C-alpha cells in the first residue's frame, strides 16, 4: 500500500452553462487540474469519470472515451454511475487503484449538464435515482424523499424549519468568496423561511440549485510525487463506501443514513483517524436536512444533535467545526455527477491554504468529504490529511 | 400501457407484470408482502429476501390498516404528477412491510387531507389525476389502531 497524494485539482465555474457541451466542461476541469498538478498527461494510467444523467441530458452514453479525448489522455477510461455519488465512487476507485500500486497517476472526477433541460425534465431525471416501482410511481420526487426524511427526523428528535434555514444561510455565506460557486449571494434565515414550499417542510432555499459543471483531480502515488518533485502536500488517507436499501421505506430508520455511517467507519479506519480528529468537512447538502444527516453519520454529532449545529454557530465559518466552507451543494451548486470530485477539490484547497476560505481553518490537518447518492442508498466518504 | 388501468396480462415487462399483479391484489383488498422465514417483509418482484438472501418467500397479507411514519405535502411535482399537486405523500407501516403512496380523503374531490405522523390509514389503489395511471393511495381509517403492544 502506498500513500495517495492529490497532485492537482480542477473545477469549472459551477452554474448555468446550457450552451456548453459536456466534453467542453470536463475538458476545462481536466486542463485546470493538469496545470495545478504540473503532471505530464502522458503519465496518466487511468481515467475514472463520474456522470449520472448524460444519456438523458445530452443523449450521450459511453462518455468515458469521449472524456479521455477531452482531457487529452490516452488510457483505459471508465464511467462510474451512482446517482449523485457518481464522482465519489469514481474517485474512490482511483484512490484504491493508486493505493494498491496498480497505477501511479489516475485522473478522476465527473461532469453533469442539467440546465439545458426544462426544470420538469430535470425533476423527472433526478427521480430515476429512486425506486421506480414503489417510490416514483407513488409520487416521490427527489425533494419529496428528503422531505419525508426531514419530517421523520423532526418527529424522532425535534427541530424545526428554522434550524434548516440556518444551514441554508450558513452555506450561502460561505459561497460568497468562492469563485467557483453558482450563488454568491447572502440568504438570510428570514428569506429562507419565507420562500415558497417545494415539498413540505422543505422550501426553495432548502434545496440545492440545478447546475452544470465538472471536476477533475490528478491523484498520484507518494513515490511518483517524490520522484517528480511535485507540490502535493495533501494526501487521501482513507476511503469508505456504504450501500443501503434503494427505497426509503425499506430502511431500518427513516431519519438516519446508515450507508453513510458505514462509509465513514470504513474511511476513518482506513485513515487511522477518529471523528474527533476532523477539523473541516465538506458534506452532501443537496437539501438542508441532508447536511444534518451527514454530520450525524460522520460521527461529528450524535443523532438528534446535528439539527442545531448551524444555528448554534458550531459549523459556521468561524465555528469549531466549519462545514461546507465551499458553499456546499446548496450554494456552490450540484452538477450531480461532478459533485464528489468537487468536494475533494475544495477540501484540498482548504487544507493547502489556497482556498478563499482557508483563513477560517489555518491549522486544519484532517478533512472529511461525504458524497451521497439518491436518498443515501449510496454513500462515499474520504479522509484527507495534510501530509507535509 | 393499457388504457383501462394496467391489467396484469397487458403489462409490458416481467417487472411491470409483477407490479401490476401486486396492484391488482391491493385493489381487491388482498394486498400482500413477500416474507422470508426470518420474518423480513418486502415487495415483489423478489427471488430472494433482500435482507438475508433466503429464497423461501411466501405471500403474507398486509395489516388491514397502517400507521403513517412520515409524510410530505409535495408542491413541485414531476411531470407525471403535474395535475395531482399539491398532494400528500406518505410512508406507512403495514406490518410485514412499509408502503409509500399518496394520502387522499376519498371524498367527492378526493383531496389531500391533513396528515400527521401516527395517523391510521387503509390502503387502496387510485388513479393519477394527470394521466389515469394507477397508484397506491391511503385513506384515513377510523377505529382501532392495528395491534398494540408488540
TrEMBL record, chain A:
InterPro entries named in the record: Thiolase, Thiolase-like, Thiolase_C_2, Thiolase_N
GO MF entry, a single one: acyltransferase activity, transferring groups other than amino-acyl groups
Chain ranges of the Thiolase N-terminal domain: 6-223
GO biological process, one term: isoprenoid biosynthetic process
TM spans (from-to): none
Domain of life (superkingdom): Archaea
Gene3D superfamilies from the UniProt entry: 3.40.47.10
Limits of the Thiolase C-terminal domain: 240-385
A Pfam family reported for this protein in Swiss-Prot or TrEMBL: Thiolase_C_1
Keywords from the named record: Isoprene biosynthesis
Protein name: Thiolase
Organism for this UniProt entry: Halorubrum distributum JCM 9100
From TrEMBL, chain B:
InterPro entries: ChsH2_C (IPR002878), NA-bd_OB-fold (IPR012340), Thioester_dehydratase-like (IPR052513)
Residue ranges occupied by any ChsH2 C-terminal OB-fold domain in the UniProt entry: 61-124
UniProt-listed Gene3D superfamilies: 6.10.30.10
Pfam family, one: OB_ChsH2_C
Domain of life: Archaea
Protein name listed in UniProt: ChsH2 C-terminal OB-fold domain-containing protein
Amino acid at each position: 500500500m502506498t500513500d495517495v497524494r492529490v497532485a492537482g485539482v480542477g473545477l469549472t465555474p459551477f452554474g448555468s452553462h446550457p450552451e456548453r457541451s459536456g466534453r467542453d466542461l470536463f475538458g476545462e476541469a481536466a486542463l485546470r487540474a493538469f496545470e495545478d498538478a504540473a503532471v505530464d498527461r502522458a503519465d496518466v494510467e487511468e481515467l475514472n469519470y463520474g456522470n449520472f444523467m448524460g444519456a438523458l441530458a445530452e443523449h450521450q452514453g459511453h462518455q468515458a472515451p469521449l472524456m479521455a479525448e477531452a482531457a487529452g489522455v490516452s488510457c483505459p477510461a471508465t464511467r462510474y454511475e451512482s446517482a449523485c455519488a457518481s464522482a465519489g465512487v469514481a474517485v474512490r476507485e482511483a484512490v484504491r487503484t493508486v493505493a494498491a500500486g496498480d497505477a501511479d497517476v489516475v485522473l478522476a472526477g465527473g461532469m453533469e449538464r442539467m440546465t439545458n433541460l426544462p426544470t420538469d425534465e430535470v425533476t423527472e431525471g433526478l427521480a430515476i435515482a429512486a425506486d421506480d416501482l414503489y417510490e416514483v410511481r407513488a409520487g416521490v420526487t427527489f425533494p419529496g424523499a428528503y422531505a419525508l426524511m426531514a419530517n421523520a427526523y423532526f418527529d424522532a428528535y425535534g427541530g424545526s424549519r428554522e434550524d434548516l434555514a440556518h444551514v441554508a444561510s450558513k452555506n450561502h455565506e460561505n459561497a460568497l468568496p468562492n469563485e467557483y460557486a453558482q450563488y454568491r449571494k447572502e440568504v438570510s434565515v428570514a428569506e429562507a423561511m419565507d420562500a415558497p414550499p417545494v415539498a413540505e417542510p422543505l422550501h426553495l432555499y432548502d434545496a440545492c440549485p440545478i447546475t452544470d459543471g465538472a471536476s477533475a483531480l490528478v491523484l498520484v502515488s507518494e513515490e511518483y510525487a517524490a520522484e517528480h518533485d511535485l507540490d502535493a502536500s495533501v494526501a487521501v488517507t482513507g476511503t469508505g463506501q456504504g450501500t443501503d436499501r434503494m427505497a426509503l421505506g425499506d430502511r431500518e430508520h427513516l431519519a438516519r443514513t446508515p450507508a453513510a455511517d458505514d462509509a465513514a467507519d470504513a474511511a476513518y479506519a482506513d485513515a487511522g483517524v477518529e471523528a474527533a480528529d476532523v477539523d473541516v468537512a465538506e458534506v452532501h447538502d443537496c437539501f438542508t436536512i441532508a447536511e444534518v444527516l451527514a454530520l450525524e453519520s460522520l460521527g461529528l454529532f450524535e443523532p438528534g444533535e446535528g439539527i442545531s449545529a448551524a444555528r448554534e454557530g458550531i459549523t459556521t465559518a468561524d465555528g469549531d467545526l466549519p462545514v461546507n466552507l465551499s458553499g456546499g451543494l446548496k450554494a456552490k451548486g450540484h452538477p450531480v455527477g461532478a459533485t464528489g470530485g468537487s468536494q475533494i477539490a475544495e477540501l484540498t484547497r482548504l487544507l493547502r491554504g489556497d482556498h478563499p476560505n482557508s483563513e477560517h481553518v489555518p491549522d486544519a490537518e484532517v478533512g472529511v468529504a461525504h458524497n451521497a447518492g439518491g436518498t443515501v442508498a449510496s454513500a462515499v466518504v474520504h479522509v484527507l490529511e495534510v501530509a507535509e | 400501457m393499457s388504457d383501462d388501468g394496467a391489467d396484469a396480462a397487458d403489462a409490458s415487462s416481467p417487472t411491470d407484470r409483477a407490479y401490476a399483479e401486486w396492484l391488482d391484489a391491493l385493489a381487491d383488498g388482498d394486498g400482500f408482502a413477500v416474507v422470508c422465514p426470518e420474518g423480513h417483509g418486502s415487495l415483489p418482484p423478489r427471488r430472494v429476501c433482500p435482507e438475508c438472501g433466503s429464497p423461501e418467500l411466501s405471500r403474507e397479507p398486509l395489516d388491514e390498516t397502517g400507521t403513517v411514519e412520515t409524510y410530505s405535502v409535495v408542491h413541485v411535482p414531476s411531470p407525471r404528477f403535474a395535475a395531482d399537486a399539491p398532494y400528500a405523500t406518505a410512508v406507512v407501516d403495514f406490518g410485514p412491510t412499509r408502503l409509500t403512496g399518496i394520502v387522499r380523503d376519498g371524498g367527492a374531490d378526493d383531496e389531500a387531507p391533513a396528515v400527521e405522523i401516527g395517523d391510521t390509514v387503509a390502503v387502496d389503489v387510485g388513479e393519477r389525476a394527470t394521466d389515469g395511471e394507477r397508484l397506491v393511495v391511503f385513506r384515513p381509517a377510523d377505529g382501532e389502531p392495528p395491534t398494540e403492544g408488540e
